[in-house]
Amino acid sequence: MARYDRAITVFSPDGHLFQVEYALEAVRKGNAAVGVRGTDTVVLGVEKKSAAKLQDSRSVRKIVNLDNHIALACAGLKADARVLINRARIECQSHRLTVEDPVTVEYITRYIAGLQQKYTQSGGVRPFGLSTLIIGFDPYTGVPSLYQTDPSGTFSAWKANATGRNSNSIREFLEKNYKETSGQETVVESGGKNIEVAVMTKDQGLRQLEESEIDGIVAEIEAEKAAAEAAKKGPARDA
Amino acid sequence: MKLDTTGLESALPLFGANCQMVDGFTAAPAFELPTTLDFDGFQKEAIQMVKPAKGTTTLAFIFKEGVMVAADSRASMGGYISSQSVKKIIEINPYMLGTMAGGAADCQFWHRNLGIKVCRLHELANKRRISVTGASKLLANILYSYRGMGLSVGTMIAGWDETGPGLYYVDSEGGRLKGPRFSVGSGSPYAYGVLDSGYRYDMSIEEAAELARRAIYHATFRDGASGGVASVYHVGPNGWKKLSGDDVGELHYKYYPVTPSTVEQEMVEVSAA
């Protein structure tokens, strides 16, 4: 048998795990994903690369349900994402079976992050090349949450975050514009034109926005922007 | 959390790194079977012989103010009363109680295991208490994986969690039932008689405690395997609290005090003839 028990992810002399860092690079090359948490809604948006004409766009859904009250979007290797999502979905149901309770967002995030970490410390495997944004509502308290995991297996909670391509500039925008009552407008604004947006509320679960709705919001935002520009220029001219 | 299937796995894997392929043995280890015509019947008999009868009376019920849990305290080995002071209500954690019926060691061990390994670790990992539903389900799964191996546990898990009061009956056959009133043990038919006829959802804590106490007393009166001290606990939103522990002999004279009756005949000394 081949010596597959040899670890691929090993420490470098100066304390780096290069495989994990390369995985983070792969994430940086992936499509941008944005998440914003409001007071009673959570929103996810993913950059859509322009669909090929013959491709059925419905088969490339980038925002997926893990359970009725939890959704996930990711940036990075989509094939790895499929594996991780399947395991997470099974874990959600297994938890419901053994404790008769839906998972909390923190629990499933911890599970996914644990899985990602396991693959940085096992023989013969490489880390998952994706960062995930997980949104959901606590099944009892109804509090919304947004969590992010990355290939190293760390996770943390966020009010708003972005991952993937241009995530730094998107995050800057979010830091400037985030308010506690934010919702879908912030995600769409940070994303640009070609995006897939899904909104989750406690009662209605996950709802993907139609293209027409997204276009509507984009139009609103552009109108607002134009008005703000005009307001800036107006007083200056008078003076 | 995965199903506890450790009891269902075979001892050694057939192939792989841990397999001991010694001397050409390639099959899983086997033991000799006794030569009987009816092996299943033989197994059943063996288990019945080993399984001690659940000589006890325990009961629990949900009412407006929470859960009331009560039990006797006698341990018997056949006709011999081995102890009159057994603690049959086990404190799993400050807001959950378990009752003991069946094998004392089995109940004690698995309740303690539930309290520490399952409930406490869950609290630490998830920063919130485990629900009564979850704890009872995990216990039932563990007991199910030991099914047929001679465990004897008939327990009720009573507690108060985010959804309010909870009461589940769990046994070593792997059964798990949710219900408002349960009684377990050899004295349970007698306890049910008193409990079911006196039960109302909107009782006060004192009324419910008195009902539980009387039910245990009546069971100890008629069932030889129950006796000792009737303990009554109440589980409320802030956790459990022990309300009383009365000797059932004293309870008897409290409920049925001896009334002096008029003397009809007196014995007179007969002078020696």
Automatic annotation (TrEMBL), chain A:
It is found in: Cytoplasm; Nucleus. InterPro entries: Ntn_hydrolases_N, Proteasome_alpha, Proteasome_alpha-type, Proteasome_asu_N, Proteasome_sua/b. Signal peptide: none annotated. GO terms for biological process: ubiquitin-dependent protein catabolic process. Keywords: Cytoplasm, Nucleus, Proteasome. Transmembrane segments: none annotated. Its main location: cytoplasm. PROSITE patterns: PROTEASOME_ALPHA_1, PROTEASOME_ALPHA_2. CDD domains: proteasome_alpha_type_7. One of its GO terms (cellular component) is cytoplasm. Pfam families: Proteasome, Proteasome_A_N. Residues 4-26 form the Proteasome alpha-type subunits domain. The proteasome is a multicatalytic proteinase complex which is characterized by its ability to cleave peptides with Arg, Phe, Tyr, Leu, and Glu adjacent to the leaving group at neutral or slightly basic pH. PANTHER family: PROTEASOME SUBUNIT ALPHA/BETA. Belongs to the peptidase T1A family. The 20S proteasome core is composed of 28 subunits that are arranged in four stacked rings, resulting in a barrel-shaped structure. The two end rings are each formed by seven alpha subunits, and the two central rings are each formed by seven beta subunits. This is Proteasome subunit alpha type. It comes from Linum tenue.
Automatic annotation (TrEMBL), chain B:
Keywords: Cytoplasm, Hydrolase, Nucleus, Protease, Proteasome, Threonine protease, Zymogen. GO terms for biological process: proteolysis involved in protein catabolic process. The active site is at 56 (nucleophile). One of its GO terms (cellular component) is nucleus. The keyword Protease applies. One of its GO terms (molecular function) is threonine-type endopeptidase activity. Transmembrane segments: none annotated. InterPro entries: Ntn_hydrolases_N, Pept_T1A_subB, Proteasome_bsu_CS, Proteasome_sua/b, Proteasome_suB-type. It catalyses: Cleavage of peptide bonds with very broad specificity. It is found in: Cytoplasm; Nucleus. Belongs to the peptidase T1B family. Component of the proteasome complex. The proteasome is a multicatalytic proteinase complex which is characterized by its ability to cleave peptides with Arg, Phe, Tyr, Leu, and Glu adjacent to the leaving group at neutral or slightly basic pH. The proteasome has an ATP-dependent proteolytic activity. This is Proteasome subunit beta. It comes from Linum tenue.
